[in-house]
Design goal:
The complex is a heterodimer of chains A (about 230) and B (about 200). Chain A is an all-alpha fold. Helix content of chain A is about 85%, strand content about 0%. The longest helix of chain A has 30 residues, at about 195-225. The two termini of chain A are about 30 Å apart. Chain B has about 200 residues and is of the alpha/beta class. Helices cover about 35% and strands about 25% of the residues of chain B. In chain B, strand 4 (about 55-60) and strand 5 form a beta hairpin. The chains are: A mainly alpha (about 230), B alpha/beta (about 200). The interface of A and B includes residues 19 and 91 of A.
């Protein structure tokens, strides 16, 4: 028997959540398919006007990413809450924030990272330039972890509530508006030949802020929900 | 070791108990008794720190548990009504993960030995969704075998268990007490530990 370290516990939680996600593949796939469907509906609905499509591409992809990441947030803590694992997590000899950070990381790998990887393929439907696709990807890479982390606060607050899913979206979506603005702003800037540095700098700053504060806030919210 | 003074707890507007005082020393065992709804589970959850008491203090080794936080969690083991077991994972994976969450890195061999002692030989690799209620409870109880916690807080540990498993749990508790451990538990079934005086706390 060996005592586990803080890092060991973080890795344990991430690995556990990834294994569980692999065994419940349907949950992961629904998020991804939702993203693909929503994005693909726009070119069909708007019609084949290239100029129009190119202009709305970034917005559509970002909003679709935002909505599909909401879909999986409800499950972030609820399964652990219902089967009692969350109680055991709160009694772990390391800080709860660390375990929460692990769950956020696993959630992003399962529901955020696939969106980042799919985005360039879907962007082609909107005739986006290679440069714009690159910027879109980097933007999503910086932005989707923020969505997972801010979303985790909402998921913790609505834990165990009836109809929590809708409430969760209402709570979290407004908080994600800055990410949406800077993410789409970066793509717009690169297509009109402006500098993208400021947009990425702000997204990066938001990411760091989220990394520092959201695990702690989520841990407090979980403690309140457990009472 | 564990001192509880003037503890009061309520759920909603309903006061469950108040003015509760007791202390527990090394090698002692205490049963919490009371009718359904008398606050047994709430008391145990308060002792774990999940619930904040309305009044009173819970002191562990001379310090309040709120201030000890993770240091206190390191020394207790809580087993509630919920098994904290994932259907998709095997008994072995479940045990290794729950031990990991309580801060112990368990080798596969140690985990298999513990599961076999719990009477789950041949079922270590099966997903727990195919196991019966009693077998799932045994997987959860296997944590008792691999824990180094001083204080066990057990909420209805005997529910869904057969006669053989109940005898095994009594044996485990006796071993734990012999190693200067402490146990607080609730049960509606008789539980006898040979040679040890059972302290009773009645909630009304």
């Amino acid at each position: 028997m060996k005592k586990s370290t803080m890092l060991g516990l973080l890795v344990l939680v991430i690995r556990r959540d990834l294994v569980l996600a692999m065994r419940r593949r349907a949950d992961v796939l629904t998020t991804l398919i939702f993203f693909v469907m929503v994005v693909s509906l726009f070119p069909l609905g708007v019609g084949p006007e290239m100029d129009m499509l190119r202009k709305m591409a970034a917005g559509v992809l970002w909003v679709a990413a935002l909505l599909s990441s909401m879909l999986s947030l409800g499950r972030l803590f609820s399964a652990d809450y219902l089967d009692g694992t969350l109680e055991q997590m709160m009694l772990a000899p390391q800080s709860l924030s660390m375990l929460v950070l692990g769950k956020m990381a696993a959630h992003w790998m399962v529901s955020g990272l696939p969106l980042v990887l799919m985005a360039p393929v879907l962007g082609l439907q909107f005739d986006m330039s290679v440069q714009a696709l690159g910027v879109l990807m980097v933007g999503l890479l910086l932005g989707t972890p923020i969505l997972s982390m801010v979303g985790a606060i909402g998921a913790a607050l609505t834990l165990g509530l009836r109809g929590g899913g809708v409430l969760l979206s209402l709570l979290v979506l407004p908080l994600c508006i800055p990410v949406l603005i800077f993410g789409t702003g970066a793509v717009e800037a690169v297509t009109s030949g402006l500098s993208i540095a400021s947009h990425f700098a702000l997204l990066g700053a938001l990411l760091i802020l989220a990394l520092v504060f959201t695990p702690w806030v989520t841990a407090q919210a979980l403690r309140i929900s457990m009472e | 070791m564990l001192e509880v003074s003037n503890l009061a707890c309520s759920r909603g507007d309903h006061r469950l108990f108040s003015g509760l005082n007791f202390h527990l020393h090394l090698g002692q065992i205490m049963q919490v008794q009371g009718a359904n709804g008398s606050g047994k589970t709430s008391l145990l959850r308060t002792l774990c720190g999940f619930l904040v008491p309305d009044e009173g203090e819970i002191v562990w080794r001379g310090e309040r548990i709120r201030e000890l936080a993770e240091d206190y969690h390191d020394e207790i083991l809580y087993l509630g009504h919920l098994n904290a077991i994932k259907d998709e994972l095997s008994a072995l994976e479940n045990l290794r993960i729950s031990a990991g969450l309580s801060g112990i890195e368990l080798e596969e061999k140690e985990a298999v030995t513990a599961l076999r002692r719990m009477g789950l030989r041949g079922r270590e690799m099966l997903p727990t969704k195919v196991l019966s209620q009693g077998q799932r409870r045994r997987v959860a109880l296997a944590r008792l075998l691999v824990s180094d916690a001083k204080l066990w807080i057990l909420d209805e540990p005997l529910s869904a268990l057969d006669v053989g498993a109940v005898a095994l749990i009594q044996e485990l508790i006796a071993e734990h007490l012999a190693q200067q451990g402490m146990v607080i538990f609730t049960t509606h079934q008789p539980l006898h530990v040979a040679g040890i005086e059972m302290r009773i706390l009645s909630l009304s």
